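Internal ticket #5521
Category: modeling
Description: The requester needs a full-assembly model to guide mutagenesis choices. All entity lines are attached below as received. Residue total reported by intake: 1452.
Assigned to: D.W.
Attached entities:
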Amino acid sequence: MTLRCSLRLFESNWMQIEEYLRRDDRIVLPTGSTEQHGFLSLGTDAILAERVAVEAAEPLGIPVLPALPFGMAPYFAAFPGSMSLRMTTYIEVLRDLLDGLAAQGFRRIAIVNGHGGNAPVAGFIREWICQPRPDRVQVLFHSWYNAPRTTEVADQFDRDQMHGGWVENFKWTRVAGADMPPDPKPVIPRNLVGQLDPAQVRTAAPDGMMGGAYARPDEDMQVVWDAGVAEVRALLETGWLS
Amino acid sequence: MTLRCSLRLFESNWMQIEEYLRRDDRIVLPTGSTEQHGFLSLGTDAILAERVAVEAAEPLGIPVLPALPFGMAPYFAAFPGSMSLRMTTYIEVLRDLLDGLAAQGFRRIAIVNGHGGNAPVAGFIREWICQPRPDRVQVLFHSWYNAPRTTEVADQFDRDQMHGGWVENFKWTRVAGADMPPDPKPVIPRNLVGQLDPAQVRTAAPDGMMGGAYARPDEDMQVVWDAGVAEVRALLETGWLS
Amino acid sequence: MTLRCSLRLFESNWMQIEEYLRRDDRIVLPTGSTEQHGFLSLGTDAILAERVAVEAAEPLGIPVLPALPFGMAPYFAAFPGSMSLRMTTYIEVLRDLLDGLAAQGFRRIAIVNGHGGNAPVAGFIREWICQPRPDRVQVLFHSWYNAPRTTEVADQFDRDQMHGGWVENFKWTRVAGADMPPDPKPVIPRNLVGQLDPAQVRTAAPDGMMGGAYARPDEDMQVVWDAGVAEVRALLETGWLS
Amino acid sequence: MTLRCSLRLFESNWMQIEEYLRRDDRIVLPTGSTEQHGFLSLGTDAILAERVAVEAAEPLGIPVLPALPFGMAPYFAAFPGSMSLRMTTYIEVLRDLLDGLAAQGFRRIAIVNGHGGNAPVAGFIREWICQPRPDRVQVLFHSWYNAPRTTEVADQFDRDQMHGGWVENFKWTRVAGADMPPDPKPVIPRNLVGQLDPAQVRTAAPDGMMGGAYARPDEDMQVVWDAGVAEVRALLETGWLS
Amino acid sequence: MTLRCSLRLFESNWMQIEEYLRRDDRIVLPTGSTEQHGFLSLGTDAILAERVAVEAAEPLGIPVLPALPFGMAPYFAAFPGSMSLRMTTYIEVLRDLLDGLAAQGFRRIAIVNGHGGNAPVAGFIREWICQPRPDRVQVLFHSWYNAPRTTEVADQFDRDQMHGGWVENFKWTRVAGADMPPDPKPVIPRNLVGQLDPAQVRTAAPDGMMGGAYARPDEDMQVVWDAGVAEVRALLETGWLS
Amino acid sequence: MTLRCSLRLFESNWMQIEEYLRRDDRIVLPTGSTEQHGFLSLGTDAILAERVAVEAAEPLGIPVLPALPFGMAPYFAAFPGSMSLRMTTYIEVLRDLLDGLAAQGFRRIAIVNGHGGNAPVAGFIREWICQPRPDRVQVLFHSWYNAPRTTEVADQFDRDQMHGGWVENFKWTRVAGADMPPDPKPVIPRNLVGQLDPAQVRTAAPDGMMGGAYARPDEDMQVVWDAGVAEVRALLETGWLS
């Protein structure tokens, strides 16, 4: 394995990527969302997906595309600043990106996802994988924040890991001037949220956070983060079929 | 609650449905798939989804639409008789059906799903729920075969509940002239299957079954079935927001 | 020709279909509709298309897919229980099914259609046939209920063969508890119906039936039915280009 | 009724159309095709549809849009100069035109069609009519060349009325330098043509004409033409629901 | 180069086009619009595009397709008689036409455009050119009315060349009974028009003309026209990559 | 005007955006591309569009969405790392974002574009503006890099402002380890590039740069940059209709 310094695609030019493709065929696409996260940044999911991907890929020298900042979050439409792509739109965006990467010689593509609402697109990725093409292209869809090992680590601190809550509250997702309540609030059952329309979601969660604690100490967060990075890195190294 | 005899939509005429709508606003849409199930019927998922829906709905007098017999199963394309709709197609089919039901006055729609590959369409249903419309319409998406209580009951017999295996082997999904191996086979990890293209799936599971036991005694199957029916019925009765 | 007992695809497993494909390349797809049929079942078109296909195909051993139960019937939207796919949706469903069958080795596909509103999709089938593909695939689109010989037989009894009327009134399309008027009613001209929107259709045909007699004796109906089955069977045997 | 000289939309400006809309709400859209017609013009269907529409509408003062020159003719792809829109494309074109006309106040739209391959779009028009809109908009789809009275008149001369044959051979569809065979040729059954792919169509009809006579005397043709014009005119006058 | 008399595709039959393809591979597609042009014809853009194409192509013997009479003009919706295709529709129409021409052996396709609102489709043409295909196909998109040399010639008369104004006022775009104001009016800035919705466009330009003079002497117009024809002809002759 | 510190949307939470919407209704969406820029970053267009937008909007307190990092660049497909969305995909992405912003109360949306290949989407934006909606929403599409004043300033240094050349070479678009040629190279005519397919583009511009100088002193670049920022800021302040 070639160790390299940061390989964000945006810190590279095409010649460097061409050179990279001579010795490797992996690439990472982070997928996020622009949506309310309570007191946290509207970009929480995109920020975390891109960052966890970059930190995981760095020692492996695998290039990381810029995060797709918009995802599927129709249920948060009543919180200003939340954006959402329709599912049919999202499918076409992924189709174009996967087709383009495959045409250029990438053969192992890891989508590192930071937003639960994007998860159904895995159905399309499965469809894409199954289409006939001259060379086999593998695509992994990995939701980093609830992957088994990361969840296990987070569970040690608090099993309530809700949207906009402590488990997404990192130094890099906080915004200036946003003071959070010190105490946890009751958890809103996930099933319930799935049945609500935008106005009802806002009524159920007036500040956008879905329950549990708002924050934990930074040292706890670092432990969760390290687990997330390690789990993505392991995937990039060993998650492929030979 | 009005108790009625069978209300398959296909055993009704429109006048009966109109009369029903004066006192209730629920309806059930079973969603299946036409795909290989090892030694079992190519229609296993559709047969089970429709049957579990009908049995659950019958004492409640809720009409059950005919099962949508085709679903998303691109990974089984190498097994003859397996059909698959692209995800974009499936979304438009559901959109049309939901729009039509909503326009006719149905306000609580339960999709009883029999096929794992259809699950991503829940993302679209969420989107549909969130679109502005004059009256609120609830849509539940319930995969009966791995719902919590049904799984709990099945786990008592055997925790390996794989595609084409014992847990789908009912009197009504067997086909004439198909003798199954008496012994279980090793389980193919679900994650692995998700990465394979059609040819690889066939190589990994030459007979189409994904591992574990092929069959269990009919009395065990009845216990599982009863749990499935009961869980769907509970959903139809109490799964709605007031 | 191999004589076999029933070959509904849902009564087969994939191995039986694979074995079948070694000696034949025909398959039947019945297409129906879920829509008001006056006093008759909302599933009349699907029930009849599937049944006529199965009876016709049985002695030939040709497998019959489950009927596509939803079709194009926007004009019946004001009669509860009527469903409709938009034409663009219906085209994509057929495209997926035809593509899938062609990829698995089927080379002669007979669509046995039970609903007049589906007929325009024949335009798409023509388009599909004309697309370049490695092997020639024939697709027949046969509306069984108004095919020449069946119509000739029905004409002997009564030339008014309207939607929801006697010509669709078989033992297997009647529903419990639906008493029909004993006398015929005036026929609504087909052209007229084509110009009406859903509310106007309901006004023009308050009970959904489009005119003529509601019923005929079962022995007459059997004669019509036998003609329909025979005509589909002849098509499956001799309707192909060599 | 206001009698006016020619009202081709292209011989009007918008002010004249606005003024027209104060007293009438009818408009005509001719639909043609650009496709082989044997020895006749590649534009035969568009030329005839537009001309028959203009002659029919002229004494009524109803404006006629320019013919949509491209239609659905995938089966003629092997004859150079033949163009074809996919059905999904054609539907969207018609949707846009109908939506635009309805938004501007047209309430009775007659599509005068000159090409058999376009006929399936009537399914979409039916769908369009059935969509909810503030004001009712009627749309007639009239294939002028095989409408009842026109056919009756043509039958008096010769019942073989095939693609590219005498029935389409008018002074205004002939091209310079194209000498036609003097004698009829055997008719190719319509059903057969529907099953052929482009290469097979060309083999079956090497010169593109589908059988029967290539020409008739101009005076006969004028009789057919006059019948066509009269039938379209009657439709524009009396074909609407009140 | 073979000199020939007029080769409008509609004045040809398929045999003539096939014969042409043995010695040349160019074809012209004029694209217009049906939209208000102030006092001028609603068909101005289509009429001019087709005519300039035919006159330019005639001495070169290159066939000219009929103009696509409908384009993208959503901003003129408040002027009756104006039609508009959505951009997604327009893209699919062009895709079908280009695919068809390429399949028949045309390798150099010139789109002669007469409407500014169509210009964005050049982005799709670029995409089409870049798709993999067995043989290279060139597509030129040329807006004749503001091409460099034509503009230079028109500038000699008057630099205000606005929609509906003198620069589109030819003998062949005027309509009977439309008297234009003798004096110029103030020019509406193009940027401004781009920000207005249909109602605002109509308020800003009550007669539909966008400013400057309404007419110029026919001899001036001929000079502009000749420049337009010459520039298109030069493109058809020398605008291709070798 | 309220002066505020940075308002990148990703540095805000939804409550801050809601509070902002009480006093203003403007927002900025930067659109970029991920594509080869010669020796410069693959993200040049996205980086510049986002940065120029943020610097322009900062003193005005207008929030800036994250840049859409993927655009339309099919012609660069042969340079690894270049991504491209099909035009139909790009249209749907913008439709979703504009619809979402409009639904949340934004009434003046400025798209600050950094990539020439995206410009055709302005056609769709025009269409979007013209659709009926309850409240008027203005959308500006501004390509910052070739806007009039910015170009004027750049022209003072060098009129050859080509893709990948000096005019895009800022400290924030260079990548580590990429040494550029010291001397200019001949300019490739823009028209020519528009006719080439991906392989030909790479042949015409082996290093991806389209001609002219590769770099200029940082102080010159700062002058160009300041002009770009000022022009965007002026647009955000005064570019709207009242």
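Resolution: model delivered.
Comment from assignee: Strands of chain F lie at 26-31, 108-113, 138-143.
Ticket closed.
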